Amino acid sequence: MKMKQAYMVLALAFAAGGAAAATTDFSSGTQGWQGTQPADGNGYSAIDTSLGNDAPAYRTVINNFGITFANSTNAEFVRDYTATSAVTFGIDVLTQQVSYFGQDVTRDLVLELRDYDNAGNGLPYTSVWYTIGTLDASVGGWQHFSVTIGDTSAGGLPSGWGGYGAEDAVGNPFLPADRTFASVLAGVDEIAFTTYKPGFAYGFTDFDVAVDNISVSAVPEPGTYAMLLAGLGLVGAAARRRRG
Asked: Model's pTM, two decimal places?
């Protein structure tokens, strides 16, 4: 009986720790992720099985102002992020080319959480965004970028985060006064990893960029760790009694 109770505590701990977790490694298709598609047919966004990061990965090769990898259909990624108190977003990136008129350049990669249901001010959506990394072909190889939101109930923007949904007289974006960081997180309709950084504009650029292992995971509560330790303790005690 004690062993059964111990395994039940462990199961509850792992369930709590795994709540709100989602990962796309492209081994089962795109799972709703879409890259920028060329309007003229010159370039592509598609799954590529040759890139060596536990292939497959999702690759965009295109000449455009910027690129975006976005998901607006998969409920594991498009949801209320305030349902957990803290959450981590992660992505693996392979930058093979970012060039502007033949010159190698870099581009910031932004994580943007977009709410289309509460848009205003003549803009398509309200969002909060964070520069999660830099696309730089000179680095070589796969890189992992991530950011953790430590408090999804925050009203103001955490350090490093920006807001979009209104603009000042010169076009600088900001979060509208009637929205908060938490209110945007509560109604995310699209999650995007993009070089279209709010408030910035770029010329046509050649991109060859692949992404993989896109993940969202809840940060376990302190109580979850306590539950896990309690379960492990019960399993150990039960095992010792059996040996005795």
From this structure: 0.84
